[in-house]
Amino acid sequence: MNKRVMGALAFVVVGIVAVVALRLARPYLQDAHQRQTSDAQSTLGRVTIAVDSWVGYVPLCSAEMKQRLRQAGWLLQCQDDHADYAKRMQRLRDGEIDFAVATVDAYLLNAAPLDFPGVMVAVIDESKGGDAIVARHDRVESLDDLKGQSGLNVALTPNSPSHHLARAAAAHFDVPELLPQGPGRIETDGSAAALKKLMSGKADVAVLWEPDVSRAVAQPDLVKLLGTEDTARLIVDILMVNRRFSQAQPEVVSLVLSSYFKVLKGFRDQPETLHRAMVTATGLPQSSVEAMLKGVAWTNLTENCRQWFGIAAPGETAADGLIGTIEATNRILSQHGEAVPLPDGDPYRLIRSQYLEDLYLQGLAGTVTDRQSTGA
Length: 376
Hints:
This protein is of the alpha/beta class. The protein has 15 helices and eleven strands. The strands form two sheets. Strands 2-1-3-10-4-11 form a six-stranded mixed sheet, with helices on both faces. A five-stranded mixed sheet has the order 7-6-8-5-9, sandwiched between helices. It comes from Candidatus Entotheonella gemina.
């Protein structure tokens, strides 16, 4: 083959490579062009949080929260995984999400097999009636009615706060019927699915969380047997962050927390805005929302520090409530043969208080324009 033919062939090959490269690069070039010619040029990145339908997470994923982060250059994306806690922990481990929410019990059970890929950085809320055991009126009217009954069908989400409420009630009230084995246990994909099983008659009892508790008690043929208003620190929701993300971008973790506490403070100052957000998120009428809100006790910055993370200024007192809840939760799990071995037996390996401590000290030092703006 002479040099002229080889040169022509090389020119063709180079041309083909250039065309292919251009086609592959075009989406990225178009994306860069869009960013440079729009307000998106100021966007620093995206923050992803895995959540579910529990109403306590509404402030975290609210329009107000998204706006605050957007003003700081970050896009907030809340991803509803329908309470698939095992998958949530896997995604947190794999870095597919930056943050995740869960109850303490769900975190212990689902994160332990993955060596606890997330670290707890804040308590979001405590359920004070927002989780409940509900039954069909024609089958059961009280917890005592469950005792000795055979053939009951119970619907719940496995390794979830509902499951934990059933465990605690079964042990405390000596009602093992709440945790049937075999076909009597109907495991569902979230609270809404459990409610559907109950209303269709396929389940006699269901363990639910809000907004499904409110939907259930509105039905004349359903009765509430037990709610978390009768418990203390049993169902506690926490926010956790991927450990690698925390190390790589601690300033973003601080931003998310400070923004959240400011949003929470805004909702407390103007409760009508929270009511509107709840109506939008749940589709329930205002009257149901007002009753539902009584079942959630949100935890602000000061409460997080003093009551849960053992943080206090000189002369103040503080409690390690979150450590106590981790240990109490594990005791309940142990009663059912499900105790979770903690890393080196140390619950402090599961929490990181530094972010809250920094925010708290900033507020005390007056570096936050309005101390109360952080939810203090």
